[in-house]
Structures are given as structure tokens and as C-alpha cells.
Amino acid sequence: MTTLSLAAARASLSKLVEAAVTTHERFEVTRNGDRVAVLLSAEDYDALLETVDVLSRADEVEALRAGLADLEAGEVSTLDEVRVAMQRRGRLPA
Q1: How far apart, in whole angstroms, are the C-alpha atoms of residue 32 and residue 69?
Q2: Which long-range contacts (CB under 8 A, 24 or more apart) does 22-30 make?
Q3: pTM for the whole structure
Q4: How many Å apart are CA 22 and CA 72, to the nearest integer?
Q5: Which end of the chain is more exposed for a tag (fewer CB within 10 A), N or C?
Q6: How many whole angstroms separate alpha carbon 75 and alpha carbon 79?
Q7: Domains defined for the chain, CATH in brackets
Q8: What is the pLDDT of residues 22-50, one digit of tens each?
Q9: How many other C-beta atoms lie within 10 A of the C-beta of residue 28?
């Protein structure tokens, strides 16, 4: 993460926004040497909020842990098996 002063951020805001959008770079903004803000793309912000939402729900965290345990145990499905299961449940067209 790049750190820059508020004055520097103000002077190059368009370039910073473009970099955040195209390269997903994040910028930490300081005022009088203190961290006061962070600039990141809307896409990265939305992903961050989604991550916080998922991790704040115990059932979602448990499902993630169970999935990782299955993966480590070699209990996985092929793409074709997943496709067939989704079609049976009406989540994919046949």
C-alpha cells in the first residue's frame, strides 16, 4: 500500500483513482503524519464488505471450514459432477 499526504493525494486524485481501479492498488492518506483515510476501488471495497459479511456469520464460517476439510481429505467433486448436481436442482439449464 502506498502512503501519501492529503496534499499529494489531492494533487493527483484522478491518477490515484485510475490506479486503484485498474491495478487494485490501495492508497493510505495521511494528514499531519496521521493516517486518516484509505483510497481503494469500489470493486475492492465491495469485496471487503462481502468478506466481512461472510466472516460475521458463524454458519458461513463453519461451511468454509467444512469445505476446506473436505478438500484436504480429498473429498472433492469433478466439474461434471457439480454440473449434473446443479442441473438436478434446477440451478443450471440442462
Answers
A1: 48
A2: 25/1, 26/1, 26/2, 27/1, 27/2, 27/3, 28/1, 28/2, 28/3, 28/4, 29/3, 29/4, 29/5, 30/3, 30/4, 30/5, 30/6
A3: 0.70
A4: 35
A5: C
A6: 13
A7: 2-40 (3.40.1620.10), 57-88 (no CATH)
A8: 999 999 999 999 999 999 999 999 999 99
A9: 15
How many angstroms separate the CA atoms of 94 and 22, rounded?
37
For 31, the grid coordinates are: 494528514
Q: How far is Cα 68 from Cα 87, in angstroms, rounded to an integer?
A: 24
Grid cell of 19 as nine digits? 490506479
Q: CA dihedral defined by 42, 43, 46, 47, rounded to 10 degrees?
A: -150
Q: Over the stretch 63-91, which tens digit does the pLDDT of each residue have?
A: 999 999 999 999 999 999 999 999 999 99
